[in-house]
Structure formats: structure tokens, C-alpha cells
Amino acid sequence: xxxxxxxxxxxxxxxxxxxxxxxxxxxxxxxxxxxxxxxxxxxxxxxxxxxxxxxxxxxxxxxxxxxxxxxxxxxxxxxxxxxxxxxxxxxxxxxxxxxxxxxxxxxxxxxxxxxxxxxxxxxxxxxxxxxxxxxxxxxxxxxxxxxxxxxxxxxxxxxxxxxxxxxxxxxxxxxxxxxxxxxxxxxxxxxxxxxxxxxxxxxxxxxxxxxxxxxxxxxxxxxxxxxxxxxxxxxxxxxxxxx
Length: 243
Description:
- This protein has about 240 residues and is of the alpha+beta class.
- The protein has helices spanning about 15-25, 45-50, 70-80, 90-100, 100-120, 135-155, 155-180, 190-200, 210, 215-220, and strands spanning about 5-10, 35, 60, 65-70.
């Protein structure tokens, strides 16, 4: 029955929450239509489809039924594919608590830290699209883009610094989930996808990679995702910022 349902995923380029959903759909063997919206101009379009106040991606239409937000989408996928084990009985409660806790926190940390690093190293922006370091004209464009992104996401240098200080505790929480069996197993749970997509993005920041090295959390960054082409070389953040 579920294989007959039409799925339409609304996303924006390079979004790690969207990547979590698309990776899960791929793992489930589901065909779906991807509607790629324009970053920065997508909010009104998303709100028009998914309802007032819902202005972020991802959004999923299931036979026209709007399902908005990462956690809600995974809950719906669990209804469509209960056999997939996205919320295994032994750890379902822990995973659902993580969705409104560490998964959301880590999702925002990855967003702040990658745009924070690119603010200091704008020449690296094109690496996330699989290209090389930008030429001077490209750097000018990247600088303008990062300034606009900082305003849109309300990022500041102080916020980047604070987020870096909070990251080790967040990684500890991910390691604890893995130790409890809620993620990191042979079959991916909803936590693997939601946490892994954020960790994958963080691993593309050279200054952050040492914080991941040797941790159980590092394994789920690539378990169900490719490594990604983005590379912000170490030394992007000012000295002493990385704990």
C-alpha cells in the first residue's frame, strides 16, 4: 500500500535536515519527487503549501497530505514503513526525546558553525558544491552571501564562539545515545539519519574534525551518507575559539 503513495519532498540545496529525509527515503527504497526551492526565497512558498508559520524545510507531501518538519516526517515514514525500525520499541522513547533535544540542538549548531567558518574562509564556499576554492570575484560573492546569511540566521561572532563551547557536550549526548542503542546499529533508526546529517556537515569543518575524532558519533556521520565535498580548512576560527 505505501509503495503506491505519491511522495513529494520540498527542500533547499545543501540542507542537512533535507539530507536526513532524502537518505531515509532512499534507504526505504521509496521513489519520490524532489522539489528544490531557492534558498533564502523559499519561506513564503513553503508556508503556502504547509500552512501559516511553517516556513522551513523539509516538507513532505504524502498523496497531497502536508507533513512539515523533520521529526513529523520521520514519524509519518514510520507509519508507512513500521517494519523499517526507525523507532525500535526498545529505544523509541529515547529517540523521540532526542528529536526535540539533541537532534534539534545539533542541527542548529551545524548550521551556525559551518556558516561561521565560511564567514572567515569564504573562498571555501564552493567546495560544498564540489568545486574548488573560489577566485577573487567568487570570494566577493561569497562574502556578500555570508553577510546576508548571518543576518538571516541571526549569527554573530559571539554566537559562533558560544556554539563551539557547547559542541563537546552535544557530542557527548550523541555518544550516550549510541551507547544506549538508539543509534549506531546495523539498521539505522530515525536518530541515525537526523543526527548523522548534522555530524556529516560538522565533519567538513577542519577546526571541528578533531572534536569528532575517536568518538562513536564520528561513525554515524558517514554510516548512511557520503562524506561530502565541503572543506573549510583548519584555522578558520580565531585562535582559542575551539575548545
